[in-house]
Amino acid sequence: MDGFLVFILCRENISIIYIFLFNFFFLVRNHVNNICSTWGTQHFKTFDGDVYQFPGLCEYNLAKDCHGSDPKFSVNVKREENDGNIAISYISITINENAFYLNKSHVTENSKLVSLPHYSRGVKVEESAFYISFQASRVGITVMWNREDAVMVEVSNNYRNKTCGLCGDFNGVPVYDEFIANGFKISPIEFGNSHKIHLPNDDCKDPYEDEDESWKPGNVSSSCKNFVKAFLSKSWSSCNEQIDPEAYIHACAIDMCACNNSTNDSCVCSTMSEFSRQCSHAGGQPPDWRSQLCAKQCPYNMRYEESAFPCVDTCTHQETRLMCEDHKIDGCFCPDGTVFDDISERGCIPRSECQCKHDRIYNSGEVYRQENTNCTCSKGKWECDSFETPVATCAVEEGSHFTTFDGTAYTFHGNCRYTLANVESKDGTSPNFTIRALLEPCAQQKYDTCLKALKLHLHDDHVLMFTSDGTVQHDQKILTLPYFSGTETIKKTHFTMLF
Fold this sequence. Notes:
glycoprotein; Ser_inhib-like_sf; 4 domains; elongated; mainly beta; disulfide bond; VWF_type-D; repeat
């Protein structure tokens, strides 16, 4: 029934039929009923599936939790015109009491600039080649923006019949209560203006009601509409089975007929892209239509795909796609058999060429050694082998009998200060130290040599002195044993002193 909307309400033995004249916007069956979106010069799709046109150029509330006095989220968008093109200049998102601001060049949280990716208080903000993604999983909302004209908001089922804004009330019933309230018809212009955010010193003007007349289906030229119909029917059968394309044909025809570009190809890109995204969300598989028009360029050696899971395997996270729970979407992806090099930024490479990173970048096959572990970089992952470090001992006994670290024993009678060991750190973490011994003839046996004192130099600024009478000095100050500091422990046993 063209031009009419029919509701049939059944209750017990009573059937009530409501028929409304309806000729200024089109319905889309709700295959993606958790998603609201806006795109192009003036197009909007509500959670409940209504597609309508609203050309306002102010800041508007796109979606908000309107249940209770303490909303969990709010999403505002600012639409503006620049050289004849309509785009989203910024998005303002409030999650509980935290305010996020997104524009094309930067992101802030509570007025503080943050770098991407950004993770804070259950919120994840990331960017890809074409989108900025904002996800607050605890609250149950995802926002995606293509940095130009298209914004998508997805909410969980917990918000059914609890939202407001240009996205509608999410009550599962098209038209109610957005465009028909209390039995009266409301135009998209009136509906859109009601969600304007009134800012101080903001002089943007509301669109007039009569502007809405130009967007009625009867005012769209048949040549524009026929062209788009022919294009959609050519290879979009998977999408047309999931989504009624009529509303998007209408939106696309509006774009084409209002376009100032001499070639119509670029004028249809926005709505065609949106229909493709909606198709992906509904479970369809859009064709690779950009080979004919609206081409996308990818960085590095990545390739563009119209519908794929957005989780990208990288050298440091090689199993990301296996655990991906995100919706399919268009974007730049690595060819099969490759992963993205997120270490040296070389684009898509075979997994076997992935490097590893610790204190520096290691190529596959290179070894990193630390203490008693050898780690080999293999296809972007460390493979480590542990081994026991041999303990080397140097000893001085009875003041004249020496054993070297290599196990060589010899006898030496001295009468001076001697360096027993001078050790420099090889890893930068172990301390440098020097041990010096004072050898003198023994008091009772003057032909024998006794160890009178040991001096331990730690780094360049600490000196410990041990004397044969049991006195210990730290930087010439006598210590009381046992002695504990952050890195040093000195205690006396029955026959020996331990450090």
